[in-house]
Write a sequence for this structure.
């Protein structure tokens, strides 16, 4: 009897060994075992056998995954992919359109997804953002909801003391009236000033609440000394390169006698923070006028609160709102003479109340808040998301349409597969894996397109997005998405193709592909509807932008140069202005602190007719201090009365108001006297209403009195050589301020900059509508090419029987043109509705007008026509023999 | 175009690795030659062990044989099944013409290298006159 080696290692060997090698090697092992057994006994032979088996367990011997017994359909899958690849190469044009269109869609989606992700990530990096809220004042006036963030100085402290749920409160004040905003800065030991923005008055407690990260200095005490300032890293590098600036002095606006002491350096505010400041001036011991920090009459402080963990914000909100109004606002208002009933009526009528806005919602949900911060808009996020999805959908439709249309070419393959035993499920799998392959290729290409287009996208969206290659979720989620998108796009074609009956298709009876199926037509209509909606949207935005730029706004914005930083000249500014007037290029010079563009100084005030302070409701108005040259420089039009006269001493109590204000004060105001809290003014002139805020808003009352503030000078230039004019101004400037570089801008640029967001919207819409149209046209092109191919025999017969080129062209074109016309009919009302809603944001707006629809309709028809006619003409002029001889 | 390029690279690569034969592979090839017609797993193993006085595991040997067969230096055929092998067939290996070329190539490159060594160098190393190079020449001569 033969000796048998141990079972376990033998079984193990049989399991792992490559089947082709198994027998011969096993034979060797047996032979050796036999011999060893005879020579050295069972134990040693067993051990050596075991060792041999273990040493055989190595790559050359172990059977590969690909063997006889497969656990998966790997082989089949390989076949599917191979066939897909072949059909891709065989039909280069169609594959290009399928993949190219898809890739464009993917790229657009990817960029927009990154954009949305960035928008949604605002203020989430603050460690306790879940407990931080900004206080909002909400008031309803004539049906309009208005929101404000400015509160009286003592409110922060009051909230903290009165409500145990509130752990901490903090404020900032970024009003230019107080010296926040832009300034001329230098380190105490430097000579030249530099201009910088981002000055703000900031509470130490707000630093604590936001837990700003410090590079130098003590975070707890950075602003606790009077005159302390905290600067960001980038500004520290600018003014104090390569040193620790804590304790150093910083001179602002040439006030060398009262410099600020640097108390700390913080990291720059992240781009995803709604707060973007660079110089935080401490509030310790600061009072802008006597009793300013105690008064409830003036609202200048944005107020943030931090609640205890687990606090219900909604219930706190109501308690806080009622508490503050009852305890502080109502007494303050009755003290100024109004009756209690009157005040109560005001609160019930206007539904004035306070709201708590979670800090991470500030960026996207601050519509209607006007406080000089830059906000995003949740509607834009939705809109972009929608557009991205639609572009991807258009690309997916191309995919579906082309796959089903070209089904005739694959029908034989399907038939044959079925005959040799494929189940329907297998064929569905085949086409699904094919579409996943297409989608994967498109994703790779789309990623490439996205990274190329990233810079352009950043420039039009005003973001600094980068593709997060290194993030752990990025690549896996793209992989997952490419499979999901591939499956979704492939579902319909795969079910459609797998339903073919083998006998019919092998007989050649299948003509399904060449008929224009209702589904395919409706998909084309869908594509074009979306494209046309985007086209109309683009045109309306352009029209509104033109309207804004060309509208008569009541002042002359052209040829006005704004000279900044003149505050440092002090009293010399008058002499400087006189010297400028003497140069030949200058028409007029005036103070320009208050300008009719966004971002310049504002000062809200309440006015009454003389003696009616506690009887009439107040007229809220802007209260600007200008000089006698202002009206001339800006080309305002006096409709009644006269301009200021510098020679009349009595003009120091004169006031010029606009028509709107005159109307609100009761009309016929010339020569009457009006009052605000501080003074009594005689109306000497009424100017025509001019737009001093964005065209989104109605013109509000405005009053101007004489003043001498001049941190900006407005210089009206003669038409002519601009660089020469600037040269002569620079010469004068260098004489007066040798240590400060000249800095200027132009009023018309500043005006246009107010509508940057509109221009941005316009650019984005233009880009996306071009994308959508290109992708849709790609699809249409491929579809028409295919139809022509399918009907080539029919066309040939028609041509032989005497059809004219023209009639064949019409025949082929009309089928598709009809679909585009239907799309126009569907798109027009939808886009009209959407764009009317968009225009509602503007108090002054263009009307949409029929011309937009006509032009976009004609454009889309033309584009479609050009796309189709390329193929139609080719078919119509071909030699009919070519189409007929194929059989 | 791209395919052509890949082909070119492939040819270049294979030229570079022309007749590559590892030390153990060379030993196996030579042994298969010695056992002319009788070379199968166990016999090769025993031959190497007895001639070179070194242990050879079945795993190492089989892997080497597989690799040489894949490279085309050896070819195999199944032989008779014997009782001591529990009915398993033997797999006999013989050297192919290509394999022979590879062996010759390896040998000639070795010789080239040996011949390139100046005799003095070997003398200095050993310190006394031992005909190392001559010995080797003899051995290789034997193998022919």
């Amino acid at each position: 009897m033969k000796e048998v080696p141990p079972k376990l290692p033998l079984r193990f060997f049989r399991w792992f060994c490559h089947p082709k090698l198994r027998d011969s090697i096993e034979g060797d092992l047996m032979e050796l075992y036999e011999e060893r057994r005879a020579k050295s006994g069972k134990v040693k032979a067993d051990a050596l056998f075991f060792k041999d088996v273990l040493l055989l367990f190595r790559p050359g011997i172990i059977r590969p995954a690909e063997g006889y017994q497969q656990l998966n359909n790997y082989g089949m899958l390989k076949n599917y992919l191979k066939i897909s690849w072949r059909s891709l190469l065989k039909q280069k044009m169609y594959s290009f359109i399928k993949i190219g269109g898809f890739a464009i869609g993917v790229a657009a989606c990817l960029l927009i997804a990154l954009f949305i992700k960035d928008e949604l990530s605002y203020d989430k990096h603050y460690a306790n953002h879940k407990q931080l809220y900004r206080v909002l004042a909400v008031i309803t006036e004539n049906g309009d909801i208005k929101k404000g963030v400015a509160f009286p100085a003592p409110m922060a402290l009051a909230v903290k003391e009165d409500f145990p749920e509130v752990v901490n409160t903090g404020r900032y004040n970024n009003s230019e009236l107080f010296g926040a905003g832009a300034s001329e800065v230098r380190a105490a030991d430097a000579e030249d000033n530099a201009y910088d923005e981002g000055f703000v008055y900031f509470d130490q407690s707000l630093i604590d609440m936001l837990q700003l990260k410090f590079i130098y200095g003590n975070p707890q005490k950075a602003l606790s000394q009077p005159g302390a300032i905290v600067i960001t890293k980038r500004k520290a590098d600018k003014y104090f390169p390569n040193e620790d600036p804590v304790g150093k002095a910083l001179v602002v606006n040439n006030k060398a006698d009262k410099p600020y002491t640097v108390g700390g350096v913080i990291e720059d505010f992240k781009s995803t923070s709604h707060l973007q400041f660079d110089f935080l001036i401490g509030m310790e011991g600061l009072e802008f006028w006597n009793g300013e920090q105690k008064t409830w009459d003036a609202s200048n402080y944005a107020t943030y609160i931090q609640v205890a963990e687990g606090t219900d914000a909604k219930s706190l909100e109501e308690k806080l709102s009622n508490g503050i109004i009852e305890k502080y606002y109502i007494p303050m208002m009755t003290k100024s003479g109004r009756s209690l009933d009157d005040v109560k009526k005001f609160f019930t009528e206007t539904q004035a109340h306070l709201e708590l806005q979670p800090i991470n919602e500030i960026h996207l949900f601050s519509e209607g808040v006007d406080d000089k911060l830059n906000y995003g808009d949740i509607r834009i996020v939705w809109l972009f998301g929608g557009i991205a999805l639609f572009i991807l959908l258009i690309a997916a439709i191309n995919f579906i349409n082309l796959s089903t249309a070209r089904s005739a070419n694959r029908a034989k393959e399907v038939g044959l597969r079925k005959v040799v035993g494929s189940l329907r499920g297998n064929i569905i799998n085949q086409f699904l894996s094919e579409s996943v392959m297409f989608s994967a290729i498109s994703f790779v290409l789309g990623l490439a397109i996205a990274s190329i287009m990233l810079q352009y996208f950043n420039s039009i969206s005003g973001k600094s997005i980068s593709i997060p290659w290194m993030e752990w979720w990025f690549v896996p989620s793209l992989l997952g998405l490419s499979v999901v998108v591939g499956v979704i796009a492939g579902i319909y074609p795969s079910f459609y193709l797998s339903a073919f009956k083998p006998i019919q298709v092998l007989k050649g009876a299948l003509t399904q592909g060449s008929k224009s199926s209702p589904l395919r037509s409706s998909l084309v209509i869908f594509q074009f509807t979306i494209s046309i909606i985007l086209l109309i949207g683009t045109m309306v935005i352009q029209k509104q932008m033109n309207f804004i730029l060309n509208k008569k706004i009541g002042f002359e914005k052209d040829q006005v140069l704004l000279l900044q930083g003149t505050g440092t000249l002090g009293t010399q500014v008058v002499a400087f202005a006189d010297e400028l007037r003497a140069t030949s290029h200058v028409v007029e010079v005036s103070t320009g602190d208050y300008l009719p563009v966004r971002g310049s100084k504002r000062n809200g005030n309440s006015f009454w007719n003389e003696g009616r302070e506690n009887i009439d409701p107040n007229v809220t108005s802007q209260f600007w201090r200008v000089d006698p040259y202002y009206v001339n420089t800006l080309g305002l039009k006096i409709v009644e009365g006269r301009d200021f006269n510098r020679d009349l001493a009595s003009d120091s109590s004169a006031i010029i108001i606009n028509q709107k204000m005159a109307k609100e004060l009761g009309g016929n105001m010339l020569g009457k006297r009006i009052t605000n809290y501080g003074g009594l003014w005689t109306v000497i002139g009424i100017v025509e209403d001019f737009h001093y805020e964005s065209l989104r808003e109605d013109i509000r009352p405005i009053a101007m009195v004489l003043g001498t503030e001049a941190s900006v000078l407005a210089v009206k230039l003669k038409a002519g050589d601009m660089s020469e004019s600037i040269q002569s101004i620079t010469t004068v400037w260098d004489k007066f301020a040798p240590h400060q570089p000249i800095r200027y801008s132009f009023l018309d640029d500043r005006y246009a900059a107010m509508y940057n967001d509109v221009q941005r919207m316009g650019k984005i819409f233009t880009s996306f509508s071009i994308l959508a149209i290109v992708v849709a046209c790609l699809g249409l092109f491929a579809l028409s090419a295919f139809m022509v191919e399918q009907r080539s025999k029919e066309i040939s017969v028609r041509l032989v029987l005497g059809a004219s080129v023209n009639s064949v062209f019409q025949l082929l074109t009309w089928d598709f043109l009809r679909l585009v016309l239907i799309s126009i009919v569907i798109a027009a009302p939808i886009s009209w509705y959407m764009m009317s809603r968009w225009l509602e944001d503007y108090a002054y707006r263009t009307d949409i007008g029929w011309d937009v629809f006509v032009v976009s309709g004609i454009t889309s028809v033309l584009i479609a026509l050009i796309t189709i006619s390329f193929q139609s003409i080719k078919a119509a002029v071909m030699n009919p023999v070519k189409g007929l001889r194929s059989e | 175009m791209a395919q052509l390029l890949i082909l070119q690279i492939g040819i270049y690569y294979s030229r570079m690795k022309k007749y590559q034969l590892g030390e153990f592979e060379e030993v196996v090839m030579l042994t298969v030659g010695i056992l002319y017609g009788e070379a199968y797993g166990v016999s090769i193993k025993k031959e190497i062990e007895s001639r070179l006085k070194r242990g050879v595991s079945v795993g190492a040997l089989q892997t080497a044989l597989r690799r040489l067969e894949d490279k085309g230096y050896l070819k195999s055929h199944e032989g008779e099944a014997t009782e001591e092998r529990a009915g398993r067939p033997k797999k006999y290996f013989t050297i192919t013409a290509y394999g022979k070329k590879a062996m010759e190539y390896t040998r000639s490159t070795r010789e080239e290298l040996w011949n390139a060594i100046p005799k003095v160098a070997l003398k200095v190393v050993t310190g006394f006159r031992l005909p190392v190079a001559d010995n080797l020449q003899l051995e290789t001569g034997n193998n022919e």
In short: Confidence is low (pLDDT under 50) at residues 1-7, 9-16, 130-144 of chain B. Chain B has seven helices and two strands.
